[in-house]
From TrEMBL:
Taxonomic path: Eukaryota, Metazoa, Spiralia, Lophotrochozoa, Mollusca
Species of the source: Elysia marginata
PANTHER family: GH20068P, HEPARAN SULFATE SULFOTRANSFERASE
Annotated positions binding 3'-phosphoadenylyl sulfate: R240, S248, Y343, K372, G373, R374, E375, H376
Keywords in alphabetical order: Disulfide bond, Glycoprotein, Transferase
Source species, domain of life: Eukaryota
Entry protein name: Heparan sulfate glucosamine 3-O-sulfotransferase
Amino acid sequence: MFTEKPLKVFVALAVLSFVGLLILQQSLTFHRVAMFIQDPSKKPSRVRNRFKLQNAKSEEGSYLGSRELGNEYDHNQELNIDSSIGIPVSQTLKETVEHRSSVSFKEAHEVSKSLEKQKSRMSSPKTLSKLNSPEQQTTSPSLDRRSRLPKALIIGFSKCGTAALRTFLTIHPDVISPILELRYFTEYYSKGPEWYRRQMPPSTEEQLTIEKTPAYIMTNESLTRIQDFDPKIKLIVIVRDPIVRLQSQYAHVFCHTKPSLWPPFKHWWNEKPHDQRIIHFSYYAWYIRQVYNQFPREKVLILSEDDMERNPLPVLKEAEGFLGLRPAYTDDMFVFNKEKGFYCFNTRSRLFPRVLRLVKVNRFTGCLGGDKGREHPPIGKNYLEHLRQVIRPLNEELFSLIGKRFQWDNFKKKP
Ligand SMILES: Nc1ncnc2c1ncn2[C@@H]1O[C@H](COP(=O)(O)OS(=O)(=O)O)[C@@H](OP(=O)(O)O)[C@H]1O
């Protein structure tokens, strides 16, 4: 009797703990499944509010992510440069914080921490190799499938839809592209062309490998390296309404920062005297002229993100012709996603399973990750007018340089 009672108590306790653990595990699994079904990247798109902006996450390894990837051991890290805006990070932070006299040391530290988090978010070059590895990207076995150097590059501009363009292009059966920005001509050049080749997913002789790194257009050094690498390479540049790009850049820089620490949009861009920062971001013509100085014009295609956002098909068709691909893009490949506010892959498309192996999109929605389509900050009427005045001549210079005009909402002539 004496020995039986403690035994019973012990058994009862053991059963209770087991059941408790089981319930805990089930609820965790349920939570994870619920999160998964919910799709954290979803957002009611162009209803851009502060809360959404703050919560936008860099899900894809593009710009933000892969930039940080390079920063793991790039020159920028040493120089402490935020390559998204081309100015020292410490300076950006300092300026950001200085703007708000009420910001405490603790808050400033938080800004710094959140930017550091952004920087270390992405993986090491090891992960880069893994993500772009042949195993990861093989679509079907073929004897002559091997990694080949790219014959086309998307070289700019950041925040202008470069990821969407690259992603959409890969639904073409003859297009192959590495998942991440490789930044070979800017940061990993010393690794040599064999390293670069090895990062490419395997392709057949007939397929075209395309790499995208928006930073390539920003320096003459990288353009010269591309020229040395292959003078016949095809280059794609995508631009965007410069005012929307400024909003997008602002949203990108502050996406992991408490809204209470954000400087007003106008102040942040005005921090540099004479609209220097605005011009740095909006003077597409200046950078494109450097490209034309080194490459024949027929090897350079200029597209607009705004056109692609409205309807990707004509833009892709233009790229298809330029790249010399057989016609394959059709409008049933893409569907407009109301929540995101732009087009995503049609998950019912026959070629969608192939896309899933080549790019990083949500398998249920067919859309790019949550760092695309962030909320944009509002711009006051007077400041908007100021931006228009500063930027309009830069746009005109661009249109006459490239010989075509883009319809950008912020610059539409009033009826
Ligand atoms: N179809 C589609 N799918 C996903 N994203 C789309 C698409 N069309 C345009 N865009 C807009 O592209 C903006 C991001 O540009 P990038 O990919 O060049 O950014 S990055 O430089 O690589 O970070 C990003 O801008 P923001 O919305 O301002 O963040 C996207 O809205």
